[in-house]
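Target chain:
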Amino acid sequence: MFDELPLEKELTLLMLTTEVAKAYNNLDASIIADRLADDIVYESQQVLIPLRGKPGVVEYLEQKFRTISNTPEAQLFVELAFLDNLDDTMIPLSFARAGQPCLVMAQGRREHKLAVVLVHERDGKISRIDICTIAPHWSQARGTGEYPK
């Protein structure tokens, strides 16, 4: 996958990324709550200030998922993917590598892709979740066709 990481780290990152997909696809923050680092950072390229800390991130996800569950047309479709084709990026990406597991998020229907979700790992925990709507772009990820439940 990506040469910089030992196989064990790659597998841990893939597992944690899959768990984040399950949380989104089931609208259930409890799936990942125990896997979040205490000092996790949750950041979106559409929001100026990142969320910091496990309690705040869990509360945010619970509220977000509750809102989505009450709005059927806002259903999420989160596909397991791998970053690919990063050479076409005009912005240097120090936080993303070709072959890195990621998620492609769509809303409303599977074809309505909105974002790439990057998961970062430290000591076996999710240390950071980045919602990327600009770079890397979802078109730079190769989907697997798997929507983890």
